[in-house]
Amino acid sequence: MTPGERLPGLLDHVIDGRSVPAASGRRFAKTHPATGETLWQVAEGGRPDVDAAVRAARAAFEGPWGRMRPDERARLLQALADRLDHEADRLLEAEIHDTGKPVKLAGGIDIPRGAANFRVFIDLLRTRHERAWPSTAPDGAPVLNYTLHVPKGVIGVICPWNLPFLNVTWKLGPALACGNTVVVKPSEETPTTATLLAQIALEVGIPPGVINVVHGYGPGSAGAALVEHPEVAAITFTGETRTGSAIMKAAAEGVRPVSFELGGKNAGIVFADVDLDAAVEGIARAAFLNSGQVCLGAERVYVERPIFERFVERFVAHTERLVIGDPFDPSTDFGPLISAEHREKVKRYFALAKAEGAAVLTGESALELPERLARGHWLRPTVWSGLADGSRTLTEEIFGPCCNLAPFDTEDEVIARANATRYGLATTVWTRDVGRAQRLAQAIRVGLVWVNAWWLRDLRTPFGGSGLSGIGHEGGEHSLDFYSDIRTVCLKGLPAGGAV
Ligand code: NAD
From the CB of residue 309, how many other CB atoms can be counted at a distance below 10 Å? Predict the structure, then answer.
């Protein structure tokens, strides 16, 4: 299912194994970020659609999925992972149409991560241990206390637009492996791959109602209806910090647990002992991959003074060499922003940066693009210097293709500057000095520290942020913990020769 030549197509919800339009009959247009053409008229869900989806998910949880033996569930999820690999081209095309991200990126990271996100949790569940505490009752009978991990029920899954397929599979892999069912509300900007996933799951034999997808917006729409639904047992959300705050208020009703992966204002730090070219390339990836629309990206870059001038020169040259253009062209490094609205937001920050005293080192010149791409949401990667640490540009998340380069003199100074934020998601540190790397890893208040790397993930490790960047961790055992409840069982045996 990609829109192909018949534009725009109709994209519906998937509820209880069927494609259905919105109960209200309403639709919204989804446009292609690179060309501006309308791809889909998408079903615009609201409370009745979410109600139907949650009912279907609850029925599947109490019925076929909940009653299924765990090894059978694992077999079906394994079949889904295999099928996602098999359908990679179709998923890739759909993801590029929705996001405008270059094929190099979507094909190299986003789409392969789908199957991996299922496999890692299937494997982890196979080797998960329960705990046991043998003891003795006052009457002398043997007692075995032990834990069981049980599924929570219907999980509400709310996803952003920047990594749509990667993010939805990151949540569904563990949620389903643990035995839950889900209702997914994908971003209104990127509705397609979640819908495809739900349809492919049905094709491999995952029962109807296990994965439901309801499209729509956030406040006053499908998103709010989902997080307010009393039958939703837990909510996993990735998106903006202020949306997380609204969702947390809704989750407080019913005291439902949340897992939040939120925004960031991450620092990149480069010491003078590095291989300069490797550091330039690494920081440029952190600043500009996915056109700067990665929560883990570095919008604040600190470079040790002895190499500052050389770093700036090479970084600007590297930025200017990035190939901007058609996302389907394998040589393209850099695609459009997701929407006209988001581009306007980023452009307002570009104006603010200049008002706050930034020198624009590269980025302002007009783009020459083929006629076909003229209505896309393009913006050149932009590099500043001269911004003050407390400026709005350096404290608010922009989520665009930009970064500020600033010199620093001492380790303590750069730690303090990196920590001068209420976010706490990630940092990327470049140095050959292992001792220093360890000191920074200890001192910088974030959930993830990369040293001489960026966005290199082992899916068994915890992933999450502190401060305004999130609540809780997913990844490895942490995901299995969030998507299960722990039950303690106290099993008393018969006392010798007696009745219980
Ligand atoms: P967003 O918060 O605007 O929207 C995310 C999702 O929430 C969408 O599906 C939207 O429809 C829904 N939503 C909005 N308001 C809602 C409400 N009141 N109730 C329920 N649902 C609601 O975020 P976005 O613009 O799609 O994504 C960009 C943000 O995501 C950035 O801040 C980025 O840092 C963050 N992000 C974080 C991570 C991470 O792992 N920490 C990963 C990716 C993106």
Answer: 11
